[in-house]
Amino acid sequence: TCENHKAEYSCPQGTVLDIQWALFARSAQEPCPHSANSICTAQYPQTLAKVREYCQGKRSCSFHSSSSLVGRDPCPNVYKYLETRYACKWKSKIICENENAQLSCLEGFVIDVEWALYGRSSVNQPCPHYAAGTICIKKDTVHETLLRIRDLCQGNNSCSFVANTNTVLGNDPCPGIYKFLELRYVCNKIICENENAQLSCLEGFVIDVEWALYGRSSVSQPCPHDKAETICIKKDTVHETLRRIRDLCQGNNSCSFVANTNTVLGNDPCPGIYKFLELRYVC
C-alpha cells in the first residue's frame, strides 16, 4: 500500500486475519512509482505490532499507510509503501451441547480438523445456560475428541453431527455443566491424480504453499475410482512433495501443473492405488 493511501485487508466468511509480517519502507523501486524512489529497508518491529493492533483476528480492517505506523519516519525524503504478509485462518467454531455441528468447505476442498475441545472454557458466553456458571477444561480429553471428530469429518467436503458427550467423547468430562464443543479446522485443496492443478491469488498477492501430501488419506471420497478403496499415507514423502510444489508455485501469483507422480514426487508411493494431491496454501 503506497504511502498516504488507505490499506484495506479482508478475508472470506468464517476466517480472520493473521498478520505475519509488515515493513513500511521501500525495498524496490517498481511499486508505487515516484521520483523519490531510493531504496530504504530500515525495519522497525513497531510496524508489525501496529498493523496487528488494527487487524489481527478481524475479518476485515482498514487504516492509513503512513509513518505513524512506526512512530517516526524510517526513510526521510523517500516515498515509502507498506508491505504486509497475512493469511486468512479459520476462527474457532463453537457448537453448543446437543446442537447440530455443520462443517463445510468450498467445492474442491476438504476438511482438515486441527484441534478440538469439549467442555466449558468460559462462563455465560458462548452458549448461555443456567448450568453455565463454572469453567471446566479437561485437556487430557483433547486427543480423544479430536480423533472422534476426525473420524466423522476428516477428508470430507462437509459433515454434520450432534455435539454431545456420546458423540465427541464418550464420558462426560463435566457432569452437571452445560458444555460446548470448540474446534478449529482448515480446508485443503484436492487435485485428483493426473488432473490439472491450478493455484491462484488475487492481484497483488503471491502463493505460499504451507503443506502438501500425495497419496490417499481416505477411501471413496474425494476422487472416487475403482482403485480408491485403500488408504495410503506415506508421511516421509511430505517434504519432497512440498519442495517440488514450492519450486513450481512459491512466490508466483498463479501456477498450474499436472498432479501425478512424476511431477509431485518422483517415485510412486502407492502403486496400484488411485491417488490425489492434498495441499494447503495462503496468499
TrEMBL record:
Family matches, as Pfam families: SUEL_Lectin (PF02140)
InterPro entries on file: Lectin_gal-bd_dom (IPR000922), Lectin_gal-bd_sf (IPR043159)
UniProt domain SUEL-type lectin: residue ranges: 1-89, 95-188, 191-283
GO MF annotations, alphabetized: carbohydrate binding
Protein name: SUEL-type lectin domain-containing protein
PANTHER family: PROTEIN EVA-1
Leader sequence segment: none
